[in-house]
Amino acid sequence: MTGDPIYTEMIIEYSKHPSNFGEIENPDISQHDSNPLCGDSIDLQIKINENKVSDIKFKGKGCSICIACTSVLTELVKGKDLDEVKKIEKNDVLGELGLEHLIRTSPVRIKCALLSLKALKYGIYSYFIEKMKDEKSAGNLKEEATNLY
Amino acid sequence: MTGDPIYTEMIIEYSKHPSNFGEIENPDISQHDSNPLCGDSIDLQIKINENKVSDIKFKGKGCSICIACTSVLTELVKGKDLDEVKKIEKNDVLGELGLEHLIRTSPVRIKCALLSLKALKYGIYSYFIEKMKDEKSAGNLKEEATNLY
Amino acid sequence: MQTALSLETIRKDFPILQRKVRENKLLVYLDNASTSQKPIQVIDAINDYYKNQNANIHRAVYALAEEATEAYENTRTKIAKFLNVQKREEIIFVRGTTEAINLVAYSWGRQNVNKGDIIVTTEYEHHSNIVPWQLLTKERGAKLEYIGVDDNGELILDQLDSYLETGKVKLVTFSQMSNVLGTITNTDEIIKRCKKVGVKTLIDGAQSVPHMKVDLSKLECDFFAFSAHKMLGPTGVGVLWVRKEVLETMQPFHGGGDMIREVHKYETTWNDLPYKFEAGTPNIADVIGFSAAIDYLNKIGMDNIRNHEIELTKYALDKMSKVKGITIYGPKDIAKRGGVISFNFHDVHPHDVATIIDKDGVAVRSGHHCAQVLMERLDVAATNRASFYVYNTKQEIDALIGSLNKVAELFKL
Amino acid sequence: MQTALSLETIRKDFPILQRKVRENKLLVYLDNASTSQKPIQVIDAINDYYKNQNANIHRAVYALAEEATEAYENTRTKIAKFLNVQKREEIIFVRGTTEAINLVAYSWGRQNVNKGDIIVTTEYEHHSNIVPWQLLTKERGAKLEYIGVDDNGELILDQLDSYLETGKVKLVTFSQMSNVLGTITNTDEIIKRCKKVGVKTLIDGAQSVPHMKVDLSKLECDFFAFSAHKMLGPTGVGVLWVRKEVLETMQPFHGGGDMIREVHKYETTWNDLPYKFEAGTPNIADVIGFSAAIDYLNKIGMDNIRNHEIELTKYALDKMSKVKGITIYGPKDIAKRGGVISFNFHDVHPHDVATIIDKDGVAVRSGHHCAQVLMERLDVAATNRASFYVYNTKQEIDALIGSLNKVAELFKL
Ligand SMILES: Cc1ncc(COP(=O)(O)O)c(C=O)c1O
Ligand SMILES: Cc1ncc(COP(=O)(O)O)c(C=O)c1O
Predict the structure, then answer these.
(1) Is C221 a catalytic residue?
(2) Candidate from D97, D176, D340 with most ligand 1 atoms within 8 A of CB, to mutate
(3) Going by DSSP bridges, is the β-strand pair D238-242/D223-227 parallel, antiparallel, or unpaired?
(4) In which domain, by residue range, is C361 found?
(5) pLDDT digits over D323-351, tens only?
(6) Ligand 1 centroid vs D91 CA: distance in angstroms?
(7) What is the ipTM of this complex?
(8) D307 and D177, same structural domain?
(9) Phi/psi of residue D62, each to 5°?
(10) Are residues C310 and C380 both part of a single domain?
């Protein structure tokens, strides 16, 4: 089985020993997502300090692709500015694991790989929207708010 | 078009000049029926005297097969004892018009041909049932009632 | 036909047109408003699916299932494009127009229609655009009202205005083309008047989509329904399109597999659009067959189809009006009608007409065409109806005329 | 197989079994509980219909329409016979099990289930036998209760008794065979207990009818639902059977063509059974395809199919239990289970298993199998599931075992 294009040592390692697994107290972002057609289920938690991801953890059940990709994603995100986090893309995650080919070869499994990225983006955007509301109600400038996008 | 197995002179005649077309005052049986999948619609009215069909008339819109068969049926039934009317069958009607073959050749048109027979039977049975109820409530013997069937 | 494909080439694609019926008569199929015939490309697509790809979709990771899912979802995209719809999640697969309209009545209707509200339909609707609203309005204590049909077979739009003025109308629902009269509804005008007062609109596109270009980005309706089987596709598939803003507010209709996100014992969350409205194993093979039908229509071009039918209809109206004892219904103006011609012979019942001409292999529909309200309006029990499609020819119309003359003769008209 | 047909002959009838997938691997199709493959006889029947008979049914008098109507209605009769049903009008054609159950929930349920009433289902149901009842009970202010599953994968019938004792149960609904555990439900016992207190029963036969003889004249349930696509038939067709006394009391579900007798503007009367429940153009071609599937099953014999699957299941259970790190779910006793085997590898996710063995051409299902309530009960996110049918062989099970061993190796179990 050497050269399996998906189940590399790295993926199996991550799936057995995921990074940033666990929970955060009083997270600023809590995002749940699941893959409706299988059973992958992820809870992301993020702590934000001065517009930076000061901590990120996840819990959940998922296949090795899902767990490995989530691990990589949390590593990528941790410590980064929200502006940078906004810019993270599919291939940033897939690339780390050599899984870019999944987009082409497995339209089904790609969903496992990208579940956590979807949750992250959703969580971040919701956070921005909440912020915008706060800022609006606090009477702040509209431009400032839209910057959050 | 000589020898058309359905549209014989007789059928076309009947359809243009149906027998017993019209209405009866105070009928004992009034039965409506329609062919749900086309648009044939028949109203049969029957007057009963001493267990005999003293008069029968019909109104309705229908194809020539339906009208011809209804005409024939009313002719067959008029003046007959209800016991005999109960026994009238498909082929009694179809036979008069040379349409027995329809059962085999046209499962759809056969419904036009037999619509009035169905209405007649339904009307007669309903009449019997009403009678049975009357007789029951009048305390008559059960056997007598079931004779009506 | 002004197309890359000649009529002759097209006819060769439809195996059934080679068939002999009754006493060795070549089939002349003129009941296209009821259901269309299928080109070999559609038949082969279904075949190929079962021989090479068959698997349940959306839920498995193995090769076949991935292929089947892709083919199924590509059809959705193709249909979106065909109707010029930007958001593919607005396309919901159903069994046909009837299920589509019932879905709206149950899901949207029961949420939005209340006591005293009015639903407006028309006198020339198919039963599938009347009965669901009778059921709904009865349940909700609401009222069903009808836009009348004038003697030219067109809707009397003034009546719409008087309903709208009550302020109680929740939905106006109508066919874009009458399946009996062939009348093309003044759709833009109805929608404009409804939009002005914020009333939702549903278009029954069962007769329009197969025969003319429909651009949903231009029509500003909220719901649109049609059936594959009337447009070269298989039986058992249809489409409900719902504007996303509206779809997002709708509760699910059928519960079951695939329409859920997470099921727990006592509560459940719904899947994304459009899956929320596609419970259970869908009709996968026929959706894929439908895809081939859309390809076929695109290859010919919807405008060419419309032009071909205009030509046939003109020809037929001209010849038919000369048959003894005939009455023809619907608009006189060819621009206002599709390729559907309803007619009657004086007092000869349509079923008799159909049976007689069937002996020559000519298939027309006779009956109430699931439009009994219109039959009452026309004061007839039934009509005969000839309806055309891409593969019909003038010779076939000549055959029809020949047979109709026989009817006139037999009944001494 | 103890039948006139050898396994070899049978396999030749299924074109897809010749197919190569992924890197030139012969397909080993073990996802039959999800959908079955189709024999050439079924594919040809659909083909033939479109090439020779296609027409809309019930409503026209010309030759094609008569032929199509007859073929469609003959299928109804054939299915009645297959299930040993005396009254063919009790057979309603729907899209599949999901639509069948929803029809009951909407039509019977909304008439009969009221505030405080209880509907009982089970922990091993498919979502299609849970979600419609969640929707219904929520709407009606009623309650949904579950019969639990014991550690052997069987229903805990004592719990049924405690629900029945409340006197508030309106319906007990359950699958005759679990699509995850393979458990064959003690159907007679449940129905007996329900009948004693006059409670209606619905059987989800999606997994049972394809794999064993079902005799509806002996089962005394009130509703029975199943799908053609799991029993060699096409997608898009299923059956709802309802006992006539019950069916006669039910209000229509979908409104539209064919389900009516007479439509007037403000009131409408319904057609006879079963047409009252078949609104709109049905999936004619696939009903006719289904007919060929029933013929095929009859030719092999349902008892032979059951025996073949028992043999395969025994063989598979024996070999699989020796694979490193594997857990197998469901009853140990072969008489209590169908040809469905769910399993997991320790902490390896089922999707990973499925993807790895798919590379060898082996197709098994992985996921929650639309049974999330059961997944919660088993305390797993998902399982792998291999399921067998008439055409599967011991060699194919060997191929599965080979691939499973690779998984164990790769994940160092
Ligand atoms: C037990 C059971 N019930 C219901 C269903 C749903 O059947 P369908 O998707 O054909 O509606 C299935 C199949 O997926 C099943 O296995
Ligand atoms: C205008 C119109 N609406 C609705 C329908 C119903 O379509 P289906 O029977 O495919 O559901 C038809 C076709 O019969 C139709 O002509």
Answers:
(1) no
(2) D97
(3) antiparallel
(4) 7-30+301-410
(5) 999 999 999 999 999 999 999 998 898 98
(6) 18
(7) 0.86
(8) no
(9) -80, 165
(10) yes
